[in-house]
Amino acid sequence: MPSRLAAVDLGSNSFHLLLARPGDSGFQVVDRQREMVRLAEGLGPDGRLSAAATDRALACLDRFGQLVRDLPPGAVRAVGTNTLRRARDAGGFLRTAEARLGHPIEIVSGLEEARLIYLGVAHSVADDGRRRLVVDIGGGSTELIVGEGFTPRELESLYMGCVSYSHRFFAGGRISRKRLRQAVLAARTELEPHERRFRAAGWQRVVGASGTIRAVARVAGGQAGLVTRQALERLMEALVEAGSVERLRLPGLGAERRPVFPGGVAILAAVFEALGLETMAAAEGALREGVLYDLLGRIHHEDVRGATVSDLERRFAVDTVHARRVADTARALHARVAAAWDLDEPGLAALLEWAARLHELGLFVAHGQYHKHGAYILGHADLPGFSRQEQAALALLVRAHRRKFPGAEFEAWAPAEAARLRRLACLLRLAVLLHRGRGEGAPPVELAVDGPAMKLAFPPGWLGEHPLTAADLEQEAAWLAAAGMALSWE
Predict the structure, then answer these.
(1) Fold adopted by 303-441
(2) Which of 14, 138, 248, 397 is deepest in the core (most CB within 10 A)?
(3) Residue 7's closest CA among 87, 71, 85?
(4) What is the phi/psi pair of residue 347, to 5°?
């Protein structure tokens, strides 16, 4: 295990870095960094990030990189949230941002963000056995989670945050009773479709996680770390009396938080109204702590992504005996060529195995074009533990495992990543081909590669006894040739 681990949270309002020393039962924090980047502020109507916001973000990642750049691959997990989910030019930004940080950056879905937030909160508050509601108000999104212990039961992510609402309803920093009520009503509209489900979840404890909620707890006074309905109402009156962000002088409210505070307060008030809350305790744990605990789980082979794949196998009635045989062969082929094909990067072997286990997922829909059905499901389902990039890569491998090689679909990826995914797809295709008989094991085949050329070596006489495989190899060679790959055998 690495001597240090790090979680990087690229939020819509703030970027956070948590550097920790792992232990037997958790981690010890050795450094924390937080910068108010306000990425959401720079997201224009066309979905593009402004130059100013991009510059702020990259400068921050330069500083974070000084702390984590020398950590080994797999010791740092960096996640992007709502603003990067929405940004049209996120791919170009990410490539530059990864170079500055020195590690890959994942964009996570709203529900995956909610899961990680809950994990961070659950580890930061005492577990009294009661079901809890967790609320997190970020810069661009708000997450609601109901769970018990370390297990979330209901999750939702809504497109409303303290930055986006402050710009939308409090333009120019002006605050009025009408503006505040409009913001609360807009948030209630977002919450309305989910009110009944979350009220029915039956929590006994309410916990808030985020800078907004901790700031409200500090400002509203009363019991430390606790937000009450009455205190929130008094705070809203104080905002109206101030009349503008510039005149807000509230004890405990920092200058950096002030410009986005009205939007966050309006959303919190709407949550209290919609869910009938009276009190909310502010927790220290949040997304970055959840990311770090999730990273620890992966290192200790408790990866939630494996559980997600197993759940998909059950839900879609996958022939697991056959799928595991294909996965075993794919893993063996990968081991033979990983060094030569630059496929020894952490995570690629697991991605190939998961694709092999799920390559027949689409049969649940129909046999015709089942590789496309499976790819659609994997590309659009909520997959706990998977980032958007991982989910897209998994869907692409399943899409590419049979029939014509979909070369154009790899062009959306950066060249180096596209090359690795093409090669993983070739290994999956060969593994599937070698198990065409389904009931029998694959032959003890050898694989050698040289650039785009692959050569299989079968036991003497084996292909003569298996004419269907020989015919399949001829067809496969033609499909791969059209994609710029070469397949031969002896």
Answers:
(1) Hypothetical protein af1432 (1.10.3210)
(2) 138
(3) 71
(4) 100, -20
Q: Which of 346, 341, 372, 345 minimizes the C-alpha distance to 359?
A: 372
Percentage of the chain exceeding pLDDT 90 = 88
Whole-number Å distance between alpha carbons of 261 and 238: 12
Q: Which residues contact 141 (CB under 8 A, 6 or more apart)?
A: 12, 81, 82, 110, 113, 157, 158, 159, 160, 161
Report domain 126-282's class.
alpha beta
pLDDT at 476 over 80: yes
CATH number for 5-109+290-295 (one of 3.100.10.20, 3.40.50.300, 1.10.3720.10, 3.30.420.40): it is 3.30.420.40
Instruction: Give the separation between CA 439 and CA 473, rounded to whole angstroms.
Output: 19
Three-state DSSP state, 95: helix
At 106, the pLDDT band (50, 70, 90 cuts) reads very high
Tell me the pTM: 0.91
> What is the pLDDT of the chain when averaged over all its residues?
94
Say which DSSP state 362 is in. Answer: G
Least confident of 6-20, 34-48, 366-380, 428-442: 428-442
How far apart CA 224 and CA 480 sit, in angstroms, is 65
